[in-house]
## 1
Amino acid sequence: YTENDYLSYDSSKAITGLYVLTQADDWYHKNLYYVSMDGDREKMANDITDIEIRNERIYYRNADGDLYTAKLDGSTLIDDTKISRNVDRSFMSSADGKYVYYIKDSNGKNSLYRYNSAASDEPEKIASNVDRNGYYLSTDGKTVVYLEDIEEIDDYFDCGTLKYATDDSEPVKISTDGNNWAEIPVELTNGYETTYSYLYQKTEITQNE
């Protein structure tokens, strides 16, 4: 990682340092280091499981399941803030670093939350009983598309209600009007790649006979 993004996606003119996760006592626990371009390194945090860096902001989860955010200044974490506890590893941030979306267990069900780092407000609960791996963001982070009210068909298939929510409106159910596919007219990202015309399968999934 760099201060702007993943190294392979970084578009900055100059890279001043790298952020590296190294394995600690086991595969689950990692240490976060800052490595300068001269090769000097400084340990920033330990017991980290996952990080995302966007536009000089870091989001990271520790081994206890606590999600944090901070601004980056070299090896320094500025205004290090705890967002929530008991967070799933599947959190996802917007390209500009302003928003982060995450899943946490609420009364035995996966609930989807949004946090706006620019406003520093309390996290906003968007939905309950969602698919922990089935949500995608618009590139500006203002819109999230997700599956709610998940029901298990068998060991391999789930079904649910396809919805989207923006940062200034209530969630909206997406209607396919009998078609097999519903097109979402936003740029979507899964944290690694961007799709400009993303198609989702109809939510009422039936297993093939």
## 2
Amino acid sequence: KMKNSLYALLFLLVITSCKEKSEKEIKYKKDTKDVLFYENDGIKNKSAKNLFREGLENVENENFELAKEKFVDADKLESRNPIILNAIAQAEIRLGNTEKSNEISLNIISIDSTYTATYINLGQNYMSSRDYEKAKEILLKGKKFATSKNLHLKSILLVNLAIAYNNLGDCENGLKYSIEALENSQDEKLTDFANKVKMESEENCNLK
């Protein structure tokens, strides 16, 4: 019998937002989870961009309720922007509103089916509810849009896919995708994390 993944709840949550002169990464720890928020181009309205940055500051301080308010206000100024909607979805999941977060994420996919971060976030939501089959399915759909233009995002998707397979008892695919994640990783922390998932896949295969 295969053991459940020890890393299933160690999520790397991704929010893509607006970019300043250099890429900014906001990190914080909560219950051993490393949560990463990345800033990138994509919000055109200046007021919406400012509100979004204020929201990210609240995320950094772990004030997710206020962060959500800022993101919602930004959405009122620049609606149907996947970056802003993803931020709202991630605030909802941090507030424990999984169904609402899933609903927003599915709406984002209907707006822009190529936006890889949405598939990652939704896959993580499904895994937090231990629905690993749904997580696998949505991550495989997102994999089609994960390209070499953003290898870091691609590696996050792949390592989540490996975790989903491990929890479904498929160590071969768990190993396959953890190795792919390592090959694409651009980040030392993610490399360490992917190595742990790879080791778990190997241990599970040896137990067969």
## 3
Amino acid sequence: QNMLKIVRIFTISLLILLLSCKEESNQKTIINENLKPTHNDLLNADLYFPKDYKLTSIDDFERKLSESRSNFEITQVSIGSIEKMKSISHLTTLYTDSLNFENYIYITKGEFVDLNKNIATQYSSMLNNSVESNWANNGINFKLLENKYFQKNQKKFVKIKYEQEFNKVKKYLTQYLISGKGKTFSVMVCNFKNEDFEKELKMLKLK
């Protein structure tokens, strides 16, 4: 039951489907260069992301999504998922790329879970089942690229990475479950560039 609760909280961001059926613009996001330290009040932690990623409200994200020229059906499903995001907004932080808002990092705080390999395996299995049911039912092709459990700098990580494709457009989604210093939270990284920010997340400093 506890594992099911964890999955319900931390899969909302994964259930936001491919937001765009257009190619990414010619503007290039700066990745792994000019990292800017950002203090996250929700986690009381220092994070390191490219300088183009800015703190964004869920309402602003929804507005940009509604105004985009994305596939209507996929957009409507995504907006439905955003309503779920709003219901737990006090537990979340969203950063979007100022050059393309559909590149984003979504953080969700949950109840503390002392991660281990067994919990990681259970979480991965339940998450994959949820993803397969949701994405397949909406005609979205996907494949699992990476699934691992590791420890770094007194933090424990579960990393699950997917490639998502709709109308020949690919997007990459990486879900992290992270525990350390009595905190457990998820980080959802979503972009067109196959960048998962693993190195940057290993650098995060929990207080």
